[in-house]
Automatic annotation (TrEMBL), chain A:
Keywords: ATP-binding, Cell inner membrane, Cell membrane, Hydrolase, Membrane, Nucleotide-binding, Repeat, Translocase, Transport. This is Glutathione import ATP-binding protein GsiA. It is a peripheral membrane protein. The keyword rRNA-binding does not apply. It comes from Rhizobium lemnae. It catalyses: glutathione(out) + ATP + H2O = glutathione(in) + ADP + phosphate + H(+).
TrEMBL record, chain B:
It comes from Rhizobium lemnae. It is a peripheral membrane protein. PANTHER family: DIPEPTIDE TRANSPORT ATP-BINDING PROTEIN DPPD, OLIGOPEPTIDE TRANSPORT ATP-BINDING PROTEIN APPD. Residues 8-255 form the ABC transporter domain. It comes from the Bacteria. It is found in: Cell inner membrane. InterPro entries: AAA+_ATPase, ABC_Ni/Peptide_Import, ABC_transporter-like_ATP-bd, Oligopep_ABC_C, P-loop_NTPase. Its main location: membrane. The keyword Protein biosynthesis does not apply. The lineage of its organism: Bacteria, Pseudomonadati, Pseudomonadota, Alphaproteobacteria, Hyphomicrobiales. It holds the Pfam family oligo_HPY. This is ABC transporter ATP-binding protein.
Automatic annotation (TrEMBL), chain C:
Residues 97-286 form the ABC transmembrane type-1 domain. Belongs to the binding-protein-dependent transport system permease family. It is found in: Cell membrane. InterPro entries: BP-dependent_transpt_permease, MetI-like, MetI-like_sf, OppC_N. This is ABC transporter permease. PANTHER family: OLIGOPEPTIDE TRANSPORT SYSTEM PERMEASE PROTEIN APPC (PTHR43386), PEPTIDE ABC TRANSPORTER PERMEASE PROTEIN (PTHR43386:SF25).
Length: 353, 320, 297
């Protein structure tokens, strides 16, 4: 693990304000509902509960992993954080300042950047690699020659020789090389937070390992913070200090890596973990941990979102929506079984004196 | 020993589009016994899908296929157009990565399965409909009567893949070809589909070729694994042997690069470089440019796939 | 997986090996397409004929003679015969190239500029702006283009300028529609999101990331409209709404010669043949351009 507490990072992040204890990002009550196309006209109006009231912090210098099935709101959360879509409700605090209010949006965007999953769709096919990387600095007023020089420097940093690659077009590169270019582009504005939305998922395994190493090196050298979205729990376990599990637009569980992976409290997190293929052919999975597909985020079930697939569900789960509550200093979960006196038969009971 | 269900000998597939011919498969030999599951493991461009699709002759015009393929007594390269139509679906059927693209959007799933049955067997629509219902129950689709009347776009990815599997086994084939059937699915759904395929395979005694890039998936379903690299099989053996004791430097590299092993370390061990361009393969071992143990011989000679014991073979000079 | 292309030797003194750009690739592929090249050659020849018409034409196109009326094709001195007023057909066809090309070609680039602007704005803005613009466009779209052109020309009165204006108006909605749909597709791609995330303004994003990727397909569509425009223009002239006699224009010639259709059908068909050849050349060229731009590598 890099950037252990107490080990000062070699470069102080640009624009550091609130001190190391202040979270880099604090998200409170983030909510985004999308109207369903074709509904609402002579029909009842339907909405997709993409992100349905989410609170979390990203600490300075950490990598926060986000996991969950498709439709859980991982990617919408990323796009909300990047301000590519505007939230219906909720607040994003960046190093103590409210994004879009006390911190102007253009300044916020300079400090938060994003790498997308599809390496080809995220590069303009008509621009050369160096032009793509130099675009953002040019927008922020860096002179052309300087922006190109920075692009070459970044290409070098991500392991692509500028002499060979800077003048090429995206289709002349392999998937792994294109994703390195996308990473270089995200770093061109010297951001403090980089959102990696399934950034390595489309790559071949041997290439994925190379890019993961690169991400670790860049994080150390530039003092970056990552929000790492992935469906691969093994990769998340390797990359992240803390992990957030999402289910149907809500946070199911969040906490330090070891707590989430070893002292799992939410039954959904355990099911996700148990769903990973076993590497030992002698210990194959015998029963699927979860049955059925993730439910539709258009009309999520009442009460606990997970109760329809949960093997521990009781009547109280169908009625009460469990809030995300702190279990220990390292972990919070949104499950009635983890809350004292919640009414669930497996909940810890606290005797009144 | 009886004849294998699938016997591929020295198969080469060359695509002749574009300026240079691309040799996607380069002398592959593989046999699969009746009731056996073999995983073809490889990265993109390794030729694993192309090898499997050759068994159904699904390649575009202008593709040249060399070598021989026998499936359940049929010489696949010699089948006439009519025989091929009977052979597809009835003897060998296939499950694709994207069921949404493989199913016809304008017919209900029930209609499509009924059509598939009626094309191969002389049965009434009524009987075909009954069979379709039975198949939907078999692949455990909830409320199957209602689901049979759904169109593909009304189903979720996992349910659609179950329907695809139901259609694939509709005519009691002997061989099931699975082309990354779980890659597009969530992990929670993937494991359900893997277990379903395993269960049906046992029940029907199917021979299965399962193409995947994910070692974990191969470990969950396969009896044997064949690892492909740049159009050739580089290692083949029992699933436990390949995973616990890989021989070929590429397989070792692939297994060593897994993040699960990196616990507590701050870096992953990686294979340097990238797979070669199939239009310009190196003259010797295709992996030699990335191999830490490459010798002079590796750069000039292509190593043959050589048996090292009863069950395992490796294509590497160190085992020749 | 994409094959890595062969390295391009960097010229001495240049730091970065620059790959050939998109348009030079398109040009290379277009040059290799024999059909498109033949079509282009014919178009170039027609343009040259139009420019040098007075020097090429053997006779004055407006000078007729009563004794020479409706001579058949192959008459000595008048290889394409003469028209109903005894004017030399060859000379009239050569001079007709000028007005016919002007009427066929001019409306398209004007409509291209206006239509693309409207369509790109609608496509990039999306939402309510898109709905407002596109529904307005749809009103024009509801009329068949021939009917719309005739109605507009009729309302504006006959004459070359009015014909050009009405043809332009006919093409704007069509081009705007194509522009809107292409822009909407590009707008959804991740690189546009990446550009927005970098804090670039809408104008910068459109200039750098949208235009380069949408103008090509719109341009291809517009070239295919040239042949339509030629036919519509001829139609307007035929109806007496475009060029007025005695000026030579193929559509108008077709009209005036229709009285001779039974006595001398081959001569009467000649202007139609010219319209056919020209419009098919523009069509073939636009097809070639589309194929040349289609491939990714």
């Amino acid at each position: 693990m890099i950037n252990l507490v107490g080990e000062p990072s070699p470069i102080l992040p640009v624009g550091e304000r609130g001190g190391p204890a202040q979270p880099l990002i604090s998200v409170r009550g983030l909510l985004k509902h999308f109207p369903v196309k074709g509904s609402g006209f002579l029909k009842p109006k339907k909405v997709v509960h993409a992100v349905d009231g989410v609170d979390f912090d990203i600490l300075k210098g950490e990598t926060l992993g986000v996991v969950g099935e498709s439709g859980c709101g991982k990617s919408t959360t990323a796009r909300l954080l990047m301000q590519l879509i505007t939230p219906d409700r909720g607040e994003i605090l960046f190093d103590g300042e409210s994004a879009g209010e006390t911190l102007p949006l253009s300044e916020y965007r300079r400090q938060v950047q994003m790498v997308f999953q599809d390496s080809y769709a995220s590069l303009n096919p008509r621009l050369t690699i160096e032009e793509s990387i130099a675009f953002a600095p040019r927008v922020h007023g860096v002179p052309a020659a300087k922006a190109i020089a920075r692009a070459h420097d970044l290409l070098h940093r991500v392991g692509l020789e500028p002499v060979r690659f800077a003048g090429r077009y995206p289709h002349e590169l392999s998937g792994g090389q294109r994703q390195r270019v996308n990473i270089a582009r995200a770093l061109a504005l010297e951001p403090r937070l980089v959102i990696l939305d399934e950034a390595v998922s489309a790559l071949d395994k041997s290439v994925e390992a190379q890019v993961l190493n690169l991400l670790l090196d860049l994080k150390r050298d530039f003092g970056l913070t990552y929000l790492f979205i992935s469906h691969d729990l093994n990769v998340v376990r390797f990359m992240c200090e803390r992990v957030m599990v999402m289910y149907l637009g809500k946070v199911a569980e969040i906490g330090e890596r070891d707590a989430i992976f070893e002292k799992t409290r939410h039954p959904y997190s355990s099911a996700l973990l148990a769903s990973m293929p076993k590497m030992n052919p002698g210990e194959r999975t015998l029963e699927p941990p979860l049955s059925g597909d993730p439910p539709n985020p258009i009309d999520p079930p009442a009460g606990c979102r997970f109760h329809t697939r949960c093997s521990f569900a009781e009547d109280v789960c169908r009625q009460t929506l469990p809030p995300l509550s702190r279990i220990s200093g390292a972990q919070s979960a949104a499950c009635l079984m983890a809350m004292t006196n919640s009414g669930h038969s497996r909940a810890p009971v606290q005797m009144e004196a | 020993m009886k004849d294998p269900m699938i016997d591929i000998r020295n198969l080469s597939v060359t695509f002749n589009r574009g300026r240079k011919p691309v040799k996607a498969v380069n002398g592959v030999s593989l046999s699969v016994n009746s009731g056996e599951v073999v995983a073809l493991l490889g990265e993109s461009g390794s030729g694993k899908s192309v090898t499997m699709r050759s068994l159904l002759r699904l390649h575009p015009k202008g593709t040249s296929i060399e070598g021989s393929m026998r499936v359940a007594g049929n010489d696949v390269t010699e089948l006439s157009a009519r025989e091929l139509a009977d052979y597809r679906g009835a003897t060998v059927s296939m499950v694709f990565q994207e069921p949404r693209l493989a199913l016809d959007p304008v017919y209900t799933l029930g209609q499509q399965i009924e059509e598939a049955i009626m094309r191969h067997e002389n049965v009434s629509r009524r009987e075909a409909a009954l069979r379709a219902l039975g198949l939907f129950e078999k692949v455990r689709i909830p409320s199957p009567e209602r689901r049979l009347m759904n169109y593909p776009h009304e189903m979720s990815g996992g349910m659609l893949q179950r329907s695809m599997i139901a259609m694939a086994i509709a005519c009691n084939p002997k061989v099931l070809l699975a082309d990354e059937p779980t890659t597009a699915l969530d992990a929670t759904v993937q494991i359900q589909i893997l277990l379903l395929i395993r269960e049906l395979q046992k029940e029907y005694g199917l021979s299965v070729i399962f193409v995947t890039h994910d070692i974990g998936v191969a470990a969950e379903v396969a009896d044997r694994i064949a690892v492909m690299y740049a159009g050739r099989i580089v290692e083949e053996g029992k699933v436990a042997d390949v995973i616990q004791n890989p021989k070929h430097p590429y397989t070792r590299g692939l297994l060593g690069a897994r993040v699960e092993l990196a616990h507590g370390r701050d870096r992953l061990i990686t294979i340097p470089g990238a797979p070669p361009d199939l239009a310009a393969l190196p003259p010797g071992c295709a992996f030699a440019p990335r191999c830490a143990e490459a010798a002079a011989q590796c750069i000039t000679d292509v190593p043959r796939l050589t048996a090292i014991d009863d069950t395992a073979s490796v294509a590497c000079v160190r085992y020749a | 997986m994409s094959a890595v292309t062969t390295d391009i030797d960097a010229p001495v003194g240049v730091l970065v090996a620059k790959s050939p750009g998109f348009w030079s690739n398109v040009l290379r592929r277009l040059i290799r397409d024999p059909v498109a090249m033949i079509a282009l050659a014919i178009i170039v020849i027609l343009v040259l004929i139009a420019i040098f018409a007075p020097y090429i034409a053997p006779y004055d196109p407006s000078k007729g003679s009563v004794i020479r009326r409706l001579k058949p094709i192959g008459t000595p001195g008048y290889i394409f015969g003469t028209d109903e007023l005894g004017r030399d057909m060859l000379s009239r066809l050569i001079h007709g190239t000028r007005l016919s090309l002007i009427m066929g070609v001019i409306p398209v680039p004007i409509a291209f500029i206006i239509g693309s602007t409207i369509g790109i704005i609608a496509g990039y803005a999306g939402g309510i702006v898109n709905t407002l613009i596109m529904r307005t466009i749809d009103v024009f779209y509801a009329f068949p283009s021939v009917l719309l052109a005739v109605a507009l020309s009729g309302a504006l009165g006959s004459g070359l300028t009015n014909a050009l204006v009405s043809l332009t108006v006919v093409f704007i909605p069509q081009i705007a529609r194509v522009a809107e749909s292409v822009t909407t597709q590009v707008r959804k791609l991740d690189y546009v999101d990446a550009a927005r995330a970098s804090g670039a303004s809408a104008a910068t994003i459109i200039r750098v990331h949208i235009l380069g990727n949408v103008l090509g397909p719109i341009f291809v569509f517009a070239t295919s409209l040239i042949s339509v425009s030629m036919i519509l223009a001829s139609g307007l002239s035929f109806l007496g709404l475009g060029v007025r006699p005695p000026d030579a224009e193929w559509g108008l010639m077709l009209n005036t010669l229709r009285t001779a259709i039974y006595s001398n059908p081959f001569v009467a068909a000649l202007p139609g043949v010219m319209i056919f050849i020209t419009s098919i050349c523009f069509n073939l060229f636009s097809d070639g351009l589309r194929t040349a731009m289609d491939v990714k590598s």
